[in-house]
């Protein structure tokens, strides 16, 4: 008996989605479920996981308050600084740049991704280290300047590492902007500054929210930049997780922190989507 067209479409859709759904279930859902189970357990005498059902791990979260505090402060601040740098760059690329060179300029934005973040971060360690900028400053009489292993160094590394991820969503949002709206605003007597705040900025806010959400969520789990540029003195949640899982081998406590981090990411994403939806009205907003 031949299948109905709707049934055929459903079968084709299921067949196309099955591989990716299976992949997500095996490598995302199952590991997260294991973390949730571990978070209610206890640390085994030799380290690792011991089955139990206790909330002691969650009650002990304040023991890592410094890591949470550094992450929840520096991640939004880093995203905000990225936004301050990225918006003018994206605006120039989308609105002001010569169309003949626009593709080349956009390509230059993503060129840093061709090099490993580890290599680029080590380069910043040299620049900010004693043989880099502090050494140049000492030559002109400015002594005892310490730039490496500070929150400022971590913030600089964050902005450098994640700036392209902020530029591209804003660029896409501005590139789709109808230039006739800008011309209409100018014809009605609005100055360029007024046009920017009344037309350009509101229409580009979905891209701004996408970039801010993307960068903030990635920064909440950042490990490499605080470890190298912070020298272990600027502790993020990612650093705490590495310490708990690989060194102290307290898997239940590490799982509790990881689950809490996932919940924070979900809340950040939901708030960003809510704000972007209100700003954009009925227009579709994609944050991922």
User: What is the residue-mean pLDDT, rounded to a whole number?
Assistant: 86
Q: SSE order, as H and E?
A: HEEHHHHHHHHHHH
> Helical residue percent?
over 70%
- Determine the number of helices (DSSP H or I, runs of at least 4 residues): 12
Q: Unreliable runs, pLDDT <50, ≥5 residues? A: 282-288
Count of beta strands = 2
**CATH class bucket:** Mainly Alpha
* CATH architecture group name: Orthogonal Bundle
Task: Provide the CATH superfamily.
Answer: MetI-like
User: What spatial order of strands do you see in the largest sheet?
Assistant: 1-2
Termini separation comes to: 42 Å
GO cellular component, one term: plasma membrane
Keywords: Cell membrane, Membrane, Transmembrane, Transmembrane helix, Transport
InterPro entries: MetI-like, MetI-like_sf
Protein name: ABC-type spermidine/putrescine transport system permease subunit I
